[in-house]
TrEMBL record:
It comes from Fusarium anthophilum. PANTHER family: ANKYRIN REPEAT DOMAIN-CONTAINING PROTEIN 39 HOMOLOG-RELATED, HET DOMAIN PROTEIN (AFU_ORTHOLOGUE AFUA_8G01020). Residues 727-746, 790-812 are annotated as: Disordered. This is Heterokaryon incompatibility domain-containing protein. The lineage of its organism: Eukaryota, Fungi, Dikarya, Ascomycota, Pezizomycotina. Residues 41-209 form the Heterokaryon incompatibility domain.
Length: 983
């Protein structure tokens, strides 16, 4: 039915009918796209996958339905199947362009050509029809509410941009006075969440489909709502701050905050801005769009290629990639190709002949090549290294073989680049302005997989503080306090008190409207810290009473040390102040003047802090997510990615607007990511010159090489480890029972609603005492663990460990690990031992028959427990047991290995369970899935810390289980299992 293939001057359209058997029957015909006799048509915009994330009422990703296409049976996704009935009902005589039907998806050459003319296809449609999924009463209400808010949304948004000030209207009651609107009801707020949780709003392909359309409407039963109304409403809720109020209202009404994590409201608002930008002079936003800096100060007509118009395409792509963060696509190449229609539009507007060769869609190229080509094009035509600010934390990178300086564009929402889109009133970052470019030039060039650049060393990381998640879930600031003990009372680089310099560093010294920040104060930060610690104290009291509270307070001695060195200047409370608070809420016995407060006093105390908590956290959640504070050996404060380690280097690189953290191995470097720092830079270009990158020339799967040239332009290479991907999820709290849990819930709700509704990150705070910290480590390749019920997931590399847990230690691939499998006296490893010094205690010798012991495979040369799929076996498990004491913290680590001759399609599942021997209770809820990605031929380490909880002393069972297809050669090895009771 697709013969012959079509090129760039033809396309296919379908007519939709429903036959007597209630089966869609479609007729597909080819048309010339520029023909004057081309018929009128509508284009359908929808999502291939289920319309809602994780809703059991809808179908699975793998489900299909069947239609008739030109008389032949044809499989389509269920969401498209449902849409066909709506299209036939709403537009019975209309022809449609539908990507899954009108493009031969199996013809890569045809896909390439058709993707390249998306601007003509969507621009030529009389209407673009958006299908969100099967209609529901709540979805219809959400569209009605969006229409109501749209009456003032566009005007209000333009006023905010024009004034360059965020109103921070975090309370729905402000809607009437500020905007003349009735405040949202609970049902209306809930319906808006349902609307913006539709997957369609988060699709990468949606961006160009919306941006290039003339008329575009969302249909739902008999409703038809212009996208401009929905897009403007999304932008209004974000810019005004009212989304925080929606979150607060829903939490107060009992809604699970995790529902807000699936919202695509941020993406919807950003898509609306791109649509207005593509409208050009037709846009009502044309006078305010220039007030938004999309490209870190890069001007479109000042590109490296001089006045050649071809350079504009690379600048536009940079603008889009910096603005459009966090959209999802099944094929990661579509991060670039999904914007091809907009790029073609730009080519047409500027009178160019074609898209630059490196940016033309070609699905014969692998993902790493596509992303590398795009990065190379952008760097070369802009003459700027601003793109490096889009590079994410190594823990979020997933594409194998990608140089460290090439952005991987993770699909989940991540941080805005520091030098990325913002109000122009903020000014722009320009860390390298102190480099004399007249003398040295902006000297960088791309040499295949190697980026060579010039810069100077600002300092080496000396100490690190906690990242945002431990602060929120655990009220943990001990590392931050210990880091600041060495600081001078006056921060020498800005002449500010160190407490002020500290919080300004964490928020990049901006308040979303001004830089330097004008609205927040040190008091805002102190109140936020106090409220987060108060939440942790409340949780400790709930689980362990006053004894637990006292034990927690003893862990905060670094805060007292900091206060003793700098009286009344510390950003953190003392344990004396916290003890007084604890007495006031009944967490500790009354002591002298410290009495229990009345309920009115308790509420007044919380209300006095809550506003500062919400405001300061709304700033931190846009800057500190996946970041942590650091201090260099020269005393600079910095805000770095979570994967940063002590001795990593911070460089100022010519042409890059932000400082960069790079990791050195001799004369070789890998880019970790951008960083904010407090204070001026003093360049010394004689120090050395180049940021190194990775290469894919190594023959070992998943390994990478780094190359760097010194000022003498010498180069060398070495292998480094890739860094694992990260997932963060959280759990919900139970209903409050006492005043102490009321405090914890109140603080948690404020933090959770603020974090979930104000950041570009899919993030929500935890509200229970943390019992699990999961650390994954990989020696060579990339792996990930999708943990739906674990509160915190931190990451490490084989070079070192990055974790906020105080008992986590640095581990290297070369180090000799202590564990039952490394003991040479164990001919057959048969148990876990609880390590209390020496020796190990052997507790159980029970192993399944499917496990054998092989030498030569061991991670450190030892024997391994080894399991393989034979011609008849298809499943099995490795099981070991150990005794646990009640209410203790334990660290469990092990290495696992998939042998070299495995066929990836043979692995059905590989998982870890840690539970009581009785099987009645999991010590870590859920199952740890080891097979999200399949690292072959590499030892991958898992470090898991957990609380044995209030169980009676019992045997713990540690199980690694596998299932695969018989005869596929699947082989699993487990080595160096180590169980340690933390002191």
């Amino acid at each position: 039915m697709y013969s012959p293939s079509i090129g760039t001057e033809s396309f296919r359209l379908v007519s939709v009918t429903i036959d007597s058997n209630r089966q869609p029957s479609l007729t597909l015909k080819k048309h010339e796209i520029s023909s004057p006799t081309r018929p009128e048509y509508y284009a359908l915009s929808y999502t291939w996958n289920p319309p809602y994330m994780g809703d059991p009422a809808y179908y699975e990703d793998t489900d299909v339905r069947y239609i008739l296409l030109n008389g032949s049976k044809f499989a389509v996704k269920p969401n498209l199947y449902d849409a066909l009935f709506q299209l036939h009902h709403s537009y019975p005589q209309m022809l449609f362009w539908i990507d899954a039907l009108c493009i031969n998806q199996n013809d890569l050459h045809e896909r390439k050509l058709q993707v390249g003319i998306m601007d003509r296809i969507f621009g030529g449609a009389s209407r673009v029809v958006v299908w969100l999924g099967k209609p529901s009463a709540k979805l219809e209400l959400g569209l009605q509410v969006a229409e109501r808010l749209a009456s003032i949304a566009s005007t209000a948004c333009k006023a905010i941009v024009r004034e360059q000030k965020y109103p921070h209207a975090h309370h729905l009651e402000e809607m009437r006075d500020a905007y003349g609107l009735d405040p949202l009801s609970f049902d209306e707020a809930d319906a808006l969440v349902t609307l913006f949780s539709c997957r369609w709003f988060g699709r990468q392909w949606v961006i160009q489909e919306v941006a290039l359309a003339g008329q575009i409407d969302i249909i739902c039963n008999e409703m038809s709502v212009p996208f401009d109304k929905v897009g403007s409403t999304a932008l209004f809720l974000h810019l005004s701050g009212l989304l925080v109020g929606i979150g607060n209202l829903l939490v107060a009404g009992g809604r699970d905050m995790r529902l807000l994590e699936d919202m695509h409201l941020m993406q919807t608002g950003r898509t609306q801005i791109v649509r207005e930008w593509c409208k050009g002079d037709r846009s009502e936003w044309r006078d305010v769009l220039p007030l938004i800096d999309f490209t870190a100060g890069i001007v479109e007509n000042t590109v490296a290629v001089g006045e050649r118009k071809e350079g504009i395409v690379g600048v536009v792509l940079l603008k889009l990639l910096m603005w459009l963060v966090g959209f999802d696509c099944g094929d990661r190449r579509d991060t670039i190709y999904g914007l091809a229609g907009i790029i073609s539009h730009v080519v047409s507007v500027h009178g160019l002949d074609s898209i630059p060769q490196r940016l033309q869609p070609d699905y014969r190229l692998d993902t790493a090549t596509v992303l590398h080509n795009a990065a190379t094009e952008i760097l070369q035509v802009t003459g700027s290294l601003a793109l490096l600010g889009v590079v994410k934390d190594p823990a979020l990178r997933e594409t194998e073989g990608l140089p460290s300086w090439v952005p991987d564009y993770p699909p989940r929402m991540a941080l805005n680049p520091m030098a990325g889109p913002n109000f122009k009133s903020l000014g722009k970052f320009d860390a390298s302005k102190s480099i004399n470019t007249a003398r040295y030039g902006v000297d960088f060039h791309v040499d295949d997989k190697v980026l060579r650049a010039r810069g100077f060393l600002l300092g080496r990381v000396k100490a690190l503080g906690e990242s945002l998640q431990p602060m929120v879930s655990g009220g943990n600031f001990a590392q931050c306090a210990a880091m600041l003990v060495e600081a001078e009372e006056t921060y020498p680089f800005t002449n500010q008190l160190f407490a002020e310099a500290f919080w300004r560093t964490l928020v990049f010294d901006q308040d979303l409207s001004d830089r330097p920040a004008k609205l927040p104060t040190t008091k805002h930060f102190q109140d936020m810290v106090l409220m987060m610690i108060a939440k942790r104290i409340s949780d400790e009291f709930k689980s362990g009473g006053s004894v637990g509270v006292e034990a927690f307070l003893q862990t905060l001695e670094a805060m007292d040390t900091l206060e003793a060195k700098h009286p009344k200047q510390s950003p953190f409370p003392t344990t004396k102040l916290l003890a007084s608070f604890c007495s006031g809420f009944g967490f500790l016995p009354e002591n002298g003047d410290d009495k229990v407060w009345s309920s009115g006093q308790q509420i007044a105390w919380m209300e006095s802090k809550k506003k500062n908590l919400v405001f300061m956290f709304s700033l931190l959640s846009t800057t500190l997510f996946n970041r942590r504070p650091a201090i260099t050996d020269g005393g600079y404060l910095a805000c770095v990615f979570d994967s940063t380690m002590v001795d990593d280097e911070i460089w100022i690189v010519s042409g890059c607007p932000t400082p960069l953290v790079i990791r050195s191995k001799g004369q070789q470097y890998s880019l970790i990511g951008e960083t904010g720092h407090a204070g001026p830079c003093k360049p010394n270009l004689s120090s050395t010159a180049l940021v190194g990158t990775t290469s894919t020339e190594a023959t070992i799967s998943g390994s990478t090489e780094i190359s760097i040239a010194t000022s003498g332009d010498q180069s060398s290479t070495t292998d480094i480890s890739s860094i694992v991907s990260e997932s963060v999820s959280s759990t919900a709290t139970s209903e409050p029972e006492t005043s102490s849990t009321d405090l914890s819930s109140a603080i948690s709700e404020s933090i959770a609603s603020t974090a979930t509704t104000t950041t570009d990150s899919q993030f929500s705070s935890t509200t229970e005492l943390s019992t699990s910290f999961i650390t994954t480590e990989t020696a060579i390749t990339t792996t990930s663990a999708e943990l739906s019920s674990i509160e915190t997931l931190t990451t490490t590399t084989a070079e070192a460990t990055t974790s906020d847990a105080p008992t986590t230690t640095t581990t290297t691939e070369e180090s000799v690990l202590s564990g039952v499998f490394t003991n040479p006296s164990f001919e057959v490893p048969n148990s876990l031992g609880v390590y209390t010094g020496s020796p190990w205690a052997l507790l159980d010798g029970d192993f399944p028959m499917s496990v054998s012991i092989k030498s030569g495979l061991g991670h450190t040369g030892s024997h391994s427990a080894y399991w393989s799929v034979t011609d008849t076996d298809s499943s099995g498990r490795i099981q070991q047991m150990a005794a646990l004491e009640a209410n203790q913290m334990y660290s469990l680590s092990f290495w696992w290995y998939i042998d070299s001759d495995v066929q990836p399609q043979g692995l059905n599942g590989c998982s870890v369970l840690i539970l009581q021997r009785s099987g009645q209770s999991n010590l870590i809820p859920g199952t740890l899935d080891l097979s999200t990605t399949l690292p072959l031929k590499t030892w991958t380490k898992y470090d898991i810390s957990f609380n044995s909880q209030t169980l009676t002393p019992a045997m713990m069972t540690f199980i690694v289980s596998c299932s695969g297809s018989a005869g596929t050669g699947l082989k699993l090895a487990i080595d160096d299992v180590d169980l340690v009771k933390q002191s």
